[in-house]
Amino acid sequence: MSESLIQVDQISLTHHGKSVLDKVSFALKAGEFITLIGPNGAGKSTLIKILLGLIKPDSGQVTKAANIRLGYTPQKFIPNEFIPISVVDFLKLNQTVSADFLHDTAQLTGIETLLNNELKNLSGGEMQRVLLARALLGKPNVLILDEPAQNLDVNGQMHLYKLIQDIHQTQGCAVLMVSHDLHRVMKESTQVLCLYHHICCMGQPESILKDSQFNDLFADQMDDLMATYEHHHNHCHED
After folding, report:
1. What single-letter DSSP state applies at residue 118?
2. What are phi and psi of 145, to 5 degrees?
3. Which domain holds residue 96?
4. Which of 19, 42, 131, 192 could bond to 73 as cystine, CB 3.0-4.6 Å?
């Protein structure tokens, strides 16, 4: 087995007397695609902030590999409308990037026609692709995505997930993605981690689908999930 890029050991955190995270442990290894799922208020975004070093847990620890390079896209990003900045200037903000690599990354994420646009004028889908491009410019070996498709329509979600899938396969970086869209994430995940303050269950998609705790948490979404998941696995995958 490859060494862990991120190792999470017994992370716990309380807020105003309520348990937000309770003894959470897992590892993200090179090349893995972990999808982190759970109901609203389950502690998913808090866990991401701990992994990024933005919040300190009450107990437990996060160990990162010495060679780790993190790329991150936040759940929400609203540019200041009073500060005009172009997409290309935003991409280069606080980092030095060669023109060729910037061009290649813009092409990969489909934003080459947006580079001279003002950031504040982008649509939700355009903004998510710009945020993804910025994350990739740091040449990450771990990509952390906090509900990247949350505010997109169905077509936008499908395009973004396909892009993330392509990046995972071609760039070779590990991916940890928080998502609500169960039926869209199962196909690509090497591991699904189900969080509700603690790790309810974790494993490959096929085993998670049969887990009783998973089914209890997502009972209202299971019919849709099963229909879509079976469709993916009974047909050839499209390029």
Report:
1. B
2. -120, 115
3. 74-139
4. 131
Q: Phi and psi dihedrals of 122, rounded to 5? A: -75, 150
3-state secondary structure of 175: strand
Cβ contact 45:180 at 8 Å: no
- Tell me how long the chain is: 239
Task: Say whether both 46 and 145 belong to one domain.
Answer: yes
Distances (CA, A) of 56 to 28, 50, 218: 19, 6, 29
Same domain, 54 and 167: yes
Q: Is the dihedral of CA 43, 213, 28, 110 positive or negative?
A: negative
- Along the 239 residues of the chain, how does pLDDT read in single tens digits? 467 999 999 999 999 889 999 999 999 999 999 999 888 888 999 999 999 999 999 999 999 999 999 999 998 888 888 888 999 999 999 888 999 999 999 999 999 999 999 999 998 889 999 999 999 999 999 999 998 887 788 888 888 888 888 899 888 899 999 987 666 666 678 888 888 899 988 877 776 767 676 666 666 655 554 444 443 433 333 33
- CB-based contacts of 142, cutoff 8 Å, min separation 6: 5, 6, 28, 68, 69, 70, 71, 173, 174, 175, 176
